[in-house]
Sequence to fold (248 residues):
Amino acid sequence: MDSAPTDGAPGPRTQVRRPPGARPGVPAPWETLPEPARRGLTVQTVEVALARAGCAGAPPVSLAADASAGFEAAPSAVLVALFEEAGEARTVLTRRSAGLRAHADEVSFPGGRIDPGESPFEAACREAAEEVSLDPGLVRPAGWLAPLFTLSSTSLIVPVVVVLDHRPELHANEAEVSRVFDVALADLVADNTFAEERWTVPGRRGEGSEDGSFPVFFFDVATETVWGATARILFDLLSVVLGVGPGR
Fold:
């Protein structure tokens, strides 16, 4: 099952600057599942799982504000857009342009800051229209994932999950995006795709970790290395869909 590019050519893999002492973490929680259980992950499978987790439909309007209360982090929203081909749900990803000031050349979901008066759903759809020309009229809200902070804890992100009826025709806004592509969820949970590392960064402590380390996730797929907040969102989505991981 190949991961098909939609617009733009793949470039060199993202170079990850690891801190001294970075070490391997634990295997993926889905690694113990038999391979057939990691296939046939349809859009319906995702929607049922989100409903089971209590995260169906558009995210609450106040979700970003509530999650960021007491923090100076600026809330953002990203669009986790899903469509189905050959009985497998696929998600749209982008590679950010090399000239951007933050997270240049990294793989991400379309998204950005939530403007005053906007809901996370509205912000994510607006940003996707600007970055990859995704028509907001084509999307249907399917659910949302728990908000998370970026690795530097300077931004709160609300992942908004939406469904498209068919493969969209997308085009990269070259000022922000160098490549638009999509991957099957089944490919993300295939053997030898996921890796966890434990990092220790001065000034940041891992919650519940005796040595102060925290997990950083990686997916090697579609000739790209996906890591950081995007990989954490994918990890959370896949954990919900497969019913594995902490609290599942």
